[in-house]
Amino acid sequence: MSDPQHRLALYLLGPLRIWHEGRELAVGPPKQRAVLALLAGHRGTVVSREQIVDALWGADAPASAANAVHTYVAGLRRILEPERGSRESGAFIVSRAGGYELRLPAEAVDSLTFVRRYEEARALASAGRATAAFERFASALGLWRGEALSGIPGPYAALERARLREMRFSATEGWIAGLIAAGRHEAAVVACSEAIAQEPLHERLRHLHMLALARSGRQAHAIQAYDDARRHLREELGIDPGPELRDLHERILAGDIAIDTPPPVACPPGKTPATTGKRNPFPGAPESSLNQLPATARVFIGRESELQLGRQGLARENSPRDSTAAILTVDGPAGVGKTAFALELAHECAREFPDGQLYVDLRTTDDDGPRSPCDALGRLLQGLGVERDRLPHDLEGRIALYRGLMHGRRMLLLLDDADHAGQLRPLVPSGPSAVIVTSRRLQRGLLTREGARRIGLRPLDPRAAADLFVALVGPERCAGQREAVELLAEYCGRLPLGIRIAVGTMAANPYLSPGELAERYADPRTRLDQLSVEDDGASSVRRALAASYLALGEEEARFFRALGAAGGGAGSGTGAIGTGAIGAGAIGAAAASALTGGDPAAACRRLEALADVGLLERSGSDAYRFNELVAIYAAERAAAERVTADRVPAECVTAADQTGARPTQLLTPIRSDGFQGLCRPEALARR
Length: 687
Fold this sequence. Notes:
Layout: E1 8-11, E2 17-20, E3 23-25, H1 30-41, E4 47-48, H2 49-57, H3 65-80, E5 93-96, E6 99-102, H4 110-126, H5 130-141, H6 155-181, H7 185-198, H8 203-215, H9 219-237, H10 243-253, H11 304-314, E7 326-331, H12 338-349, E8 357-361, H13 373-383, H14 395-406, E9 412-416, H15 421-424, E10 434-439, H16 444-449, E11 453-456, H17 462-473, H18 475-478, H19 482-491, H20 496-508, H21 514-521, H22 524-530, E12 532-533, E13 536-540, H23 541-550, H24 554-567, E14 575-578, H25 589-594, H26 600-612, E15 617-620, E16 623-626, H27 628-640, H28 650-659
Parallel strand pairs: 7-10, 7-11, 8-9, 9-10
Antiparallel strand pairs: 1-2, 2-3, 4-6, 5-6, 12-13, 14-16, 15-16
């Protein structure tokens, strides 16, 4: 298929969809869609008006059919070429003597691409190139999104739908035969079961099902499958199974089927060895590719409610084969522990995904920039056993091969440090698999179009944050110092990254106490300097925040700096930003819009944008607040750009008068847990 971003692309293997230069077009009423499907199926040739009438109405064509065809063609031309004059020749639908021609390359129509790949796969199989044929069958099947020409009326659509369905099942047979030849019998059993549910009278599918069962050591199930096939054929058609199916049944009864998959080896409870006697379902791949998940954090505390939500999200009913896999997004601010949480959840649920677990770091916050979908697919395909030198070079080829290899699989994918939906969509398979996505950015696109479920992580609650510090440092060094530990956790923003950096400082100096370290962190002017590890960019709160800041647009970055200048970043805790005055340290709508030239709508958009990337926390439907460390960083950025409180608009002063707060306190994070006096805004007056 052509990339929808390039000119025109038609999708018929499912509901009819059409893309032109990156936009999906509304095709119009059902019969107008039927005209487009007919022209697409015969692209490059002239289709007469009489053929169109027959295709739409058959023998029941009304007297007005010819005029209706003209109307439908005119409607399609308006949709495909809205700038075209009424008397100008069209670039896509061209009038010919007695009919019309759709001018499109064959690769722009997915059904034509499917037929070409299907025929190539059969030719490869006939030539004895089994592996190449298997991959081509997989790439052909990966194009399907549902029933072909779904919802399109008329005799032509019905016949074409039946023709493509037969070819699809023939391709499925070839693909399943490839699975069996490669020793992937369990995967073949699953694929056969799903195909038989749609085509219960298809004897070839029944034959492959029995063979896969027998070769996986399940002879009793294979015999039962034969009995089911015989009963179904007798009830529906009044016939017995054919000679091939009967012969296979006799061979199974005689024990004449080679069994080349050893039975599973028992594992101790709670252990998941690299191999349990079950064959690797991806030939050529190392056994470790079945579970590519990195190790979990040595200590993981808290997040019980979020983990329960994650379990529920991954335990949903299996999606139909042609629908998008279940997606769970995990977002939150820098340093909040998104990857650690996702790994904890993925390892816990790994047994629910017997075909394996794959992991890709999408590197959105790396200095080298985010990983492209093509590169990420290359990583996934190698995990699925495709050798590097056999990877398709183009994105379309990799998507097709990936969909084919994931067809019918129940796998868990962890896509870490994602950027946006456009980077992710090519990586999301269909069917019974599930995907966990971590990102600093709220994935609105996946929530809207793919129906993803979301878990938004916030800093740990005070008790869990202190417990994490104690568990990592050791209870002996924290004995009798609970208050100091809690204060230290607050100074770390209750972020796991900050807490782990503090623990590293304690480990490096065995004589340091939590109280003494808290004294070092007390000054907000130097706190971010303390919360970093020399020569380790990944262990720096400032660098983590910088990655989120640098991803902002120019206007959002300017707004962020203005908030930092208005608040000073000197507080300790969190402070609210809302659409009305909501207490000391609050900023109302007037003050927020003052930072955007008096435009409340722009202020709301920018507050939302900062919250979407974790630089603000939502504290209500229309209220926001800074995490303390983010507030300090915002003040740093404001100082670096020479944005000072003197340059905060006068409207902010008015808002301050309404709340009784000084201008420099407007966005100062305010603590509500008894630590307000530990670090006052006046501390930054010496800057």
